[in-house]
C-alpha cells in the first residue's frame, strides 16, 4: 500500500499480531478500521475513536487519499476547545477505511483522546512513533500541497513497468498522464453546473494505448511533429533519411516516435501545483534523426485550472526538434458526438499553404476570406465542409518564443471553455477527419470523424526544409524550450 502523503510504499509492522502500515519516508502511520478494532478491542474504543471523528470540517484539502479506496480523505476535528485541550485535524477516509496520523498527530491524539495510557498497544504506539517527535507536531498542516497519485498501469511487452499518474486540483480539475508515450490520458473538468466529464479521447487501459493509438490520442509527439516532406532533410551539409510513414512523408517522429517509447518519470509536488516530469533519450540515428537528444516533458496542474505542458531538449549533434501534444479534445465529453457546435477563436491571421501531400508549399497566406479565419468566434462546424475538415497549420500572431494567448474554445451545451497559451509559433487545427469509428475508446466509445479537435501547438510543418520558417534546429550547448498552457473554465 502506498503512503497517502509521500506515495512511498509503506512498510507493514506487526504489533501484537496486528498489521500496521508505516511510512518509512514521512513516519506516518495508517490504521485501517479493522486494525483499529483489533487494537482497541477491550472497551469499544475503536468505535468510540472512529465515531468521535465523525465531524468533518471543510478545509482546503491537502488531497491526501485513502490508500485503500483512493477517495479524498476528510479532515476531521478531534479534541474539544471547551475543555481547553485544543483541536486537531486528522485525515479520515470518507468510506470509513481508516485514519491517517503523522507522528505529531499521533502523539497529540494519544494525549487528547482519553486513551488508556497504560493500554499495551497505546504504549507500543507511543514508544514506536512518538518519541523524539516533539518538534514534528503539525508538519505542514496548513499548507495546500497538491499530490500526485501513482498507480501501476501495466507492463509493456518487454516487461517494463508503466504507471498512471493522477493530479487533481481543489476545483475538481484532474489530469492523468502515463510514462508510456508521455501521454495525457485524461482531463476531467467541471461544466457550468459543476458536473465533471473527461474531455479527452483515449483508452481505458494501457493495452488500448499500446495497440490502438494510431490517431496519437493524448500523445507527446516527437522528435519532429507533423510532416517532413519525403522524410528527407539536409543539415550541416549532410543528407538524412527518416522513416517514411505517411504516404511519401515522415509524420510525427516516424514509426516508433516519442508517443510509443517508455519515459522515465518523476513526480514533483508543491503548494498549489503538482507535476509529473518525463524524460527520454532518443539515440543518435533513431528513426533516422542525428544526435543523441535528451528531452523532457513536464505536465503541471495548478489551482488556477491550468494544465501546463513544458518541453526541454539538449543534443550532442545538430538536429531538428519540434514536439507537441496531440490531445483530441471534446469539451462536451469525450463520447459526446461531434465538435461542430464548439465555438473557436484562433489568434492567427496567417496560415501555411499546403500542397497535395499536406506539406507546406512555403507560402504563408492570410486567413482572411478562408474557412481558417477564426480571428472572430465561429462554430467549428460552420465552414468545415467547405475545407473538407480542418488539418491546417496557422501562424500565430506573436513572436516565436513569446508566451501568448492563441486559442479560445467554448462549448455552449456544457459551458466549458478552454484557452490555449503557448510559446510556439504555429498551431495545427485538426478536426479528426481520419477517425472512422473503428477504434474502441474509453468506455467502449466509437470515435467517429469530427468527434474531437486538436490544437497542436508547434513549429510549422516541414520547417527543417524551409529556411524562411522559424528554425527547429538545435545544436550542442543550446536548449530547446517550449511551453503550452491549457486553461479550463466555464461560462454561462
Ligand atoms: C495531422 C493529421 C494526422 C493526425 C493523426 C495530425 O497532426 O495533421 O494529418 O492524420 O495528426 O496522425
Automatic annotation (TrEMBL):
GO BP term, pick one: glucose metabolic process
Claim: Iron is one of the keywords in the record: no
Main location: cytoplasm
Keywords assigned: Carbohydrate metabolism, Cytoplasm, Isomerase, Phosphoprotein
Ranges for domain Transcription factor zinc-finger: 2-41
Places the protein is found: Cytoplasm
Signal peptide: none
A GO CC term assigned to this protein in UniProt: cytoplasm
GO molecular function: aldose 1-epimerase activity; carbohydrate binding
NCBIfam families the UniProt entry points to: PRK11055.1
Complex and partners: Monomer.
Family: Belongs to the aldose epimerase family.
Protein name: Aldose 1-epimerase
Biological classification of the source: Bacteria, Pseudomonadati, Planctomycetota, Phycisphaerae, Sedimentisphaerales
Amino acid at each position: 500500500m502506498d503512503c497517502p502523503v509521500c506515495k512511498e510504499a509503506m512498510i507493514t509492522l506487526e504489533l501484537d499480531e496486528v498489521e500496521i502500515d508505516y511510512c518509512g519516508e514521512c513516519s506516518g502511520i495508517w490504521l485501517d478500521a479493522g486494525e483499529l478494532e483489533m487494537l482497541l478491542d477491550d472497551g469499544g474504543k475503536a468505535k468510540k475513536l472512529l465515531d468521535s471523528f465523525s465531524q468533518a470540517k471543510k478545509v482546503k484539502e491537502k488531497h491526501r487519499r485513502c490508500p485503500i479506496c483512493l477517495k479524498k480523505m476528510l479532515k476531521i476535528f478531534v479534541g474539544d476547545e471547551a475543555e481547553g485541550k485544543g483541536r486537531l485535524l486528522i485525515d479520515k477516509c470518507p468510506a470509513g477505511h481508516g485514519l491517517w496520523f503523522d507522528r505529531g498527530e499521533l502523539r497529540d491524539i494519544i494525549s487528547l483522546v482519553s486513551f488508556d495510557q497504560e493500554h499495551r498497544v497505546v504504549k507500543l504506539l507511543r514508544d514506536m512513533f512518538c518519541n523524539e517527535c516533539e518538534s514534528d507536531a503539525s508538519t505542514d498542516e496548513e499548507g495546500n500541497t497538491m499530490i500526485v497519485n501513482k498507480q501501476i498501469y501495466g507492463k509493456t511487452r518487454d516487461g517494463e513497468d508503466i504507471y498512471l499518474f493522477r493530479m487533481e486540483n481543489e476545483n475538481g480539475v484532474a489530469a492523468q498522464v502515463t510514462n508510456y508515450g508521455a501521454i495525457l490520458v485524461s482531463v476531467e473538468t467541471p461544466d457550468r453546473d459543476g458536473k465533471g466529464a473527461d474531455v479527452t479521447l483515449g483508452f481505458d487501459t494501457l493495452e488500448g494505448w499500446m495497440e490502438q493509438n494510431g490517431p496519437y490520442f493524448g500523445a507527446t509527439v516527437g522528435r519532429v511533429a507533423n510532416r517532413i516532406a519525403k522524410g528527407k532533410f539536409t543539415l550541416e551539409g549532410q543528407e538524412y533519411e527518416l522513416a517514411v510513414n505517411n504516404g511519401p512523408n515522415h509524420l510525427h517522429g516516424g514509426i516508433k516516435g516519442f508517443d510509443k517509447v517508455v519515459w522515465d518519470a518523476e513526480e514533483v509536488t508543491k503548494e498549489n501545483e503538482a507535476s509529473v516530469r518525463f524524460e527520454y533519450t532518443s539515440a543518435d540515428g533513431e528513426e533516422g534523426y542525428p544526435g543523441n537528444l535528451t528531452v523532457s516533458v513536464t505536465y503541471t496542474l495548478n489551482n488556477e485550472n491550468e494544465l501546463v505542458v513544458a518541453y526541454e531538449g539538449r543534443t550532442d549533434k545538430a538536429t531538428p526538434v519540434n514536439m507537441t501534444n496531440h490531445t483530441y479534445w471534446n469539451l462536451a465529453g469525450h463520447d459526446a458526438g461531434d465538435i461542430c457546435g464548439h465555438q473557436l477563436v484562433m489568434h492567427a491571421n496567417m496560415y501555411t499553404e499546403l500542397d497535395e501531400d499536406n506539406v507546406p508549399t512555403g507560402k504563408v497566406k492570410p486567413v482572411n476570406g478562408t474557412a481558417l479565419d477564426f480571428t472572430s468566434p465561429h462554430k467549428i462546424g460552420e465552414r468545415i465542409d467547405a475545407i473538407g475538415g480542418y488539418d491546417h497549420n496557422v501562424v500565430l500572431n506573436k513572436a516565436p518564443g513569446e508566451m501568448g494567448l492563441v486559442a479560445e474554445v467554448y462549448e455552449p451545451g456544457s459551458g466549458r471553455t478552454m484557452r490555449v497559451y503557448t510559446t510556439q509559433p504555429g498551431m495545427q487545427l485538426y478536426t479528426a477527419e481520419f477517425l472512422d469509428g473503428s477504434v474502441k475508446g474509453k468506455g467502449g466509445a466509437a470515435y467517429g470523424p469530427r468527434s474531437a479537435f486538436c490544437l497542436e501547438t508547434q513549429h510549422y510543418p516541414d520547417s527543417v526544409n524551409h529556411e524562411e520558417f522559424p528554425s527547429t534546429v538545435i545544436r550542442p550547448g543550446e536548449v530547446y524550450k517550449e511551453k503550452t498552457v491549457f486553461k479550463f473554465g466555464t461560462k454561462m
